[in-house]
Amino acid sequence: IILILSNIPITLFGLGLREVLIILFFINYANYEKLLLLGILYNFLEYIAPLIIGLVLLPKLILNFIRLKYE
Q1: Residue 9, CB-side half-sphere exposure with 13 Å CA sphere
Q2: How deeply is 18 buried, as exposed, middle or buried, from its count of CB atoms within 10 A (0-12, 13-18, 19+)?
Q3: Are 1 and 25 in contact (CB under 8 A)?
Q4: Most buried residue among 6, 13, 31, 53 by CB atoms closer than 10 A?
Q5: pLDDT per 10-residue tile (average), the chain, 71 residues
Q6: Cβ contacts of residue 48 below 8 Å, gap of 6+?
């Protein structure tokens, strides 16, 4: 439900909206701070981690393309 509702085009990448929805739906299971941290961690894993992995692997990919081109 949270993922569906966070795709409503109100905010950029669902930031803020997703955190509020996580807090509203799971307030009975944890306090606000832990739930906010969960929302921020989810955003990191969804957007920032793939970016970092891609930037690390990009030079190797470019070198492989250059090698294939000159073989």
Answers
A1: 0
A2: buried
A3: yes
A4: 6
A5: 67 72 89 89 86 92 87 73
A6: none
